[in-house]
Amino acid sequence: MSSAVQPDGSELRPAPFQPKILAQPVADAAATAHPVAERIAAALQHADAARDERQWTKAADGYRAVLDLDPQRAPIWVQYGHMLKEAGNMAGAEEAYGQALKLEPGNADTYLQLGHLLKITGRKHSAGQMYLRSLETDPTLRDAWKELCALGMKARADAIVETVAGTSKAIHYFDLSDILIHFSDNRTPTGIQRIVLAVAEAALQAQDAAEVAVCAVHSETGKWKRIDNELFLHLMQLSHDGARNSDQEWRSAVGDLFRMMASAPPLKFPEGSTIISLGSPWGLQNYFMALREAKEESSVSYVAFVHDTVPLLYPEYCEGVIPIEYVRWLHKLLSHADLVLANAENTKKDFLNAISQFGSGSVPCEFVYPNGDFTSMFQSSGSVSEEVQSILPTKYALFVGTIQPRKNHMMVLSAWRQLIKELGVNAVPTLVLAGKLGWYWEQVVEFIKKTDSLDGKLRMLNQVSDTDLQALYQNAMFTIYNSHYEGWGLPVTESLSFGKVPLIARNSALLESGGKHAVFFESSSEPSFMEAVRNMIFKPDFLVERERAIRADPPVRSWQSVAAEIRRVVKDARAKALAAGGPHFASGLKLGQVYHFGMKKIWAAEKRGGFYDAADFVDFEVGEEVRAGPHWNPPEEWGVWTCKRTFRLVFDLSAAKNGREWGPDEELRLCLSVRGHHQPTKLRFDMNGSALQAFSISPHTESVLSITFKASMLTDDKLVLTASQNSLTDLAKVTEGRDPRTIGIALKSFMVCRMSDLDARMRFLESIAGYVEGVIGVDAVASGPTINPEDSEGGFLLLGAERADIAHANR
Predict the structure, then answer these.
(1) What is the DSSP letter of 342?
(2) SS3 helix, strand, coil % of the chain, rounded to 5?
(3) Cβ 551 vs Cβ 564: under 8 Å
(4) How many CB atoms lie within 10 A of CB 6?
(5) Which residues, at least 6 apart from 735, have a Cβ–Cβ distance to it below 8 Å?
(6) Over the chain, what is the mean pLDDT?
(7) Structure confidence by residue, pLDDT tens digits, 267-294
(8) According to the model, what pLDDT value does residue 23 have?
(9) What secondary structure letter does DSSP report for 279?
(10) pLDDT value of position 302
(11) Which of these, 104, 214, 199, lies nearest to 567 by C-alpha position?
(12) Quick one: how far is CA 791 from the chain centroid?
């Protein structure tokens, strides 16, 4: 059987790698006495012999037999990958190397081998990423350095070797968390994503690009990870070049990105750096927990970008839970953001009005126009599709935007049909709709079908590449954007970038994005729109003059300029904050109030059609802020399951003091409602450095943990409760694979109150009435928290005052 060859025609042999990855021999006779151990030893012997004889398929079968018996052997996965590669099974080999990296993500040699595989299959950029990862893991690995030099990446390789594990120079980290989720299923970005990608791409190519990096929250670990700059830029180029999500080169690049995210170590942000989130991460679970962890660890600043407040102003134009999730996100910004950027002055006004509804808290807000020149962003090496080529020679008006109710396509379609009846089919240009099918698109598609695509004068394109879109803009008579409300209106900027006159509705920030170069019609007025279209069609001098004005005074600028302004505003805001002593955000936690970890109240607001009470969000947000670290499953209606053996809760009581200092002997009580999972669990707690004894929770049982402590135990007004549990439940085994989660105990609600506040303690017990209560007591600070085993009843711990509380509650 022929061996794999390198691009220069030479045969690729595995021999150089064998000494480093041979499986260790069985240590002694006792180990081989076990039947499985004997089978593994025999399979290894046969596989090694077949490898030495260059019988690649037979050797692969042998190593596969070993892995079937013990799949945790990372070196054997590597050997298995070598044999598959030699046998010509490149896809299988890549999968085997990937499995080895899952088991040993810190193995530099495995990254090197995967790089070799990617190189000989023609994926040189992806190979470079693996060689970089190999060198970053082990800067002394000369083979990785040589391969990078051969690929023209010597400067990158030298920088890694010189710095070894040196600190990053980056001070501005652009957050791409939501972009990664989008790219997992989509290749072409939508409006907001175009802005995020354009700004990040421009910042990475600036003269001071060493100060810029891109990062994201890894959804599986909840940790921040840095994204390789070159891999990101490569992905951007592929995104520009085509629209097919199934394209092999695109899928390979996306796979490289997610493999890198999985294997990369958690990102430790340099002190004084800033996370800039220009996208829409407000639907990501546990995003703000990761942010709080970064703030606590590195004192980073956080800058959010508000593109619009449509889910709050017009929830009827939004799908499902989006309005509720959006309001939750706005509320979180009050306690997490150091600065909010808006994309228009009108959006800034909307944002400030929105957060004023929460009754308390504020955050600095500035606006930066995203009026970047899209002609540079649309440059690509892709080709125009045949469908678009058939449109370009005709006279047409272009309407770019996702098919959804807010864009009001129906009014445009109705007006176009009336114009055809009034002027004749030959006098009216073709209407081209370019945009994905979004929410509630059925009415538009049904209208198009029933009118025979407006008597042939309509073309709808639901999947267009940047190359297609560039050609459509360049050849259009004019463009249309008929939105009920916009934060900015990116298709307007795109139209102006190509020197085309946009015909847009007179509302919201469209007045700013369109400016003096747009032609406006009255919002939701079909007669006003039709009159404007007649002028565009029958007054050619009108269009010519408008286009000349756009060329004479371009309303767009380079994306480098947009990125530079964002960074300047961020730097200025940070300087002001430091001069004022830095941002000071306190939790809204109040003494004596019950808070919930579940989303019952929020979901109730959703069922009410999006109408909400601000108190509902405060209740849940305080509960979420208490949870710390990536130790949690997503919250459910009733509460939240833990997912790790250890978890942490941080109770910030600074606002609870109401401006006064704690008394030296003031006693406080923490009440925590918990729920057992499928197995008996022992919990051990550490509270601000004081250890508590173990506490038992029975399966499927609700319990109350009650901890009494003195205010003098607080550190910076914070109570930090660290817990460890000795058991978890793999739900995949319980549900026959239907639920893949791992769960530990669950948290339902909590309250912190003064020990003397009997009414508050009763309110908490009443809020969980009907459950069995278990209580942990804490003695004097000097002796630390203790549990008296003599107070145990039925497996639960009931102490002093709580006995009276429970007896009263159960009457």
Answers:
(1) E
(2) 50, 15, 35
(3) no
(4) 11
(5) none
(6) 83
(7) 889 988 999 999 988 778 778 889 988 9
(8) 31
(9) S
(10) 95
(11) 199
(12) 47
